[in-house]
Amino acid sequence: MSDLNALLNSCSFTELGARQRAAALLDPGSMRELLDPFERVKSPWLEAQGIVAQADDGVVIAKGQMAGRPVVVAAIEGNFQGGSMGEVGGAKIAGALELAAEDNRNGIPTAAVLLLETGGVRLQEANLGLAAIAEIQAGIVELRQYQPVIAVIAGPVGCFGGMSIAAGLCSHILLTREARLGLNGPQVIEQEAGIEEYDSRNRPFIWSLTGGEQRHACGLADGYLADDADAIREQVLAVFEAPGEGLPRSRQHGRFLQLLARVDTAQQADAEGVRAFYKGEQA
To answer: Which of 113, 178, 196, 209 is deepest in the core (most CB within 10 A)?
Structure first.
């Protein structure tokens, strides 16, 4: 009965919008949104291409507290342009990270949580989006010197492209079963390598390689969570309390390069083989 009650009382994180996700993490009454939709700071490039722009450019920036700790949350709305990063949305996230780093220099220990539901750069904004992602990555590296920068990828959009590199730079990555994390999306891989290599319509196959459970089992993520808002908040708080002292994955590049040098590209990858590979059990 207790399990049933827990299920009935749970709140799916993946079903919430970006603004609701930010609010679900922060202490009640502490959320203050920066550059909210009423500021009308939206992409100047989409309308010229016949695309309806969104007033917040699909990015919600909120300052508040988690268990009394100062936190900034950047939440990407996956339902707007696939969560793609353009000039404005990217600048909002980069600016928030830079302000959090400045807070720390001024004695305010502000941490950051990035809610990443994104396919990467917005193709309609091309180089501007890439430049914004580069600024986000620089902001993560700067801030993590002071406080944890936690990436939460809940699904179903996942996290791909340049923003997957941003996730890899974070102090910690938390995933749900519904989440996916990878450099190139399934359609891109299929387009470049062929359907025999990667069938983008084969959802079980895709999740078996890039889904949350697999990425966690391979050591590419630090937490594997249920799709529950309270559980995700509790895990983020646990990381804040005990961030650990290990090197970030981005500083373990030597080990990963050694692993990659042993990849046999003639063999079709499968979930079991990939797990064994990352554990050093096979070439």
So the answer is: 113
- The whole model's pTM is what? 0.93
| 138, 177 contact by CB (below 8 A) | no
Kindly tell me the sign of the dihedral angle through the C-alpha atoms of 206, 210, 211, 217.
positive
Distances (CA, A) of 75 to 17, 123, 129: 9, 20, 17
DSSP 110: -
DSSP string, 156-224: SS-B-THHHHHHHHSSEEEEETT-BB-SS-HHHHHHHH-TTT--TT-HHHHHHHHBHHHHHHTTS-SEE
Interval 155-212: pLDDT, tens? 889 999 999 999 999 999 999 999 999 999 999 999 998 998 899 999 999 999 999 9
- Characterize the bridge pairing of strands 59-66 and 32-34: antiparallel
Place of tokens 């220099």: 105
* CA atoms of 146 and 134, how far apart (whole Å): 20
- The domains located in the chain, with CATH, are 2-181+221-246 (3.90.226.10)
Rounded to the nearest 5°, which phi and psi values hold at 126?
Answer: 40, -115
Rounded Cα distance, 283 and 195, in Å:
24
Q: 44 preceded by cis ω (within 30°)?
A: no
Reading across the β-sheet that carries 149-153, which strands appear in turn? 32-34, 59-66, 69-76, 111-115, 149-153, 172-176, 223-225
Provide the strand spans (E) within the chain. Answer: 32-34, 59-66, 69-76, 111-115, 149-153, 172-176, 223-225
Distance CA 75, CA 20 (A): 9
Q: Which two tokens stand for residue 154?
A: 């809940």
Q: To the nearest 10°, the Cα dihedral for 93, 166, 246, 262?
A: 180
